[in-house]
Amino acid sequence: MNDNKKLAKIVSASLEIKERGNLNFWINVAYEDGLNQGIGGITLDTYNEEKKRRIGTAYGCEFIRQLLLCLDVNDFSEMKGKVIWVFGHGEGCSIQPTGIKPLNVDNPKQKALMFADIAKEFGI
Question: Please, are residues 9 and 37 in contact by the beta-carbon 8 Å criterion?
């Protein structure tokens, strides 16, 4: 698999918990080549065996925090309309997103936010 970078516009972004009971995020993008994709679906909480329920994690909090900082927004609703670079493996419809980065004209000092880097920081 090759690492690729595709230009995309965010059409919506959200946090959700009702679909399967676990907290995750979705950033829906429209690529300049006409394809659309949902980025995310990454579980941000965990199941606690002792409490017999899902609980929040530092990893999930940091992931949300890094997304907000990367895109220079106060909440997920402000992501709509932002143009970003999407990094990923594969081509066309089968690209598997691995990170995002705002355009330099929007946030010049922001480096790419690679999802695996956050997971690595928390030993996931």
Answer: no
